[in-house]
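Dear Dr. H.,

I hope your travels went smoothly. While you were away I took the liberty of generating a structure for the chain from your last submission, since the lab meeting agenda had it listed for discussion. I wanted you to have the full record in hand beforehand rather than looking at slides cold. The sequence, exactly as received, is reproduced here:
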Amino acid sequence: MVMGERQLKVGLRVRDLRRSADLYLRLGFKEIPNLEQPNLRYLTFGHTWLILSDLTAHGYHTEEAERAARSQRLGVGFVLTIPTTDLDRSYAVWREEGLAVTVEPEDAGWARIFYGRDPDGYEVMFEEFRA
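The corresponding predicted structure, in token form, is as follows:
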């Protein structure tokens, strides 16, 4: 079996590859070394991969896709949900990074949650499930 053959992967185009990778690493993601592709960062969370690609340096499948990604606000309609065992810590990291919080921490019934926008405008929801 080839590494990554059976994992769900989510790809995000980002303006600052280093800043985005550093943020997600602080939130508990792990990095898979990737020296062959400097415009990509492969991160994992459990069995799911988060592939960050440089908005301007990584290729597109069509010219239309490239124009749309470069001209529109990134992240519209997309939510990345990250489970956490310490919502307060995740919230503190988010605030330390100076990122927007769109829903303050609250009890949603099944979990404590909060929402924010990452450096590229992608909406991220954090959820801390009850023990």
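Two observations you may find useful: The mean pLDDT is 88. The chain is about 20% helix and 35% strand.

With kind regards,
E. W.
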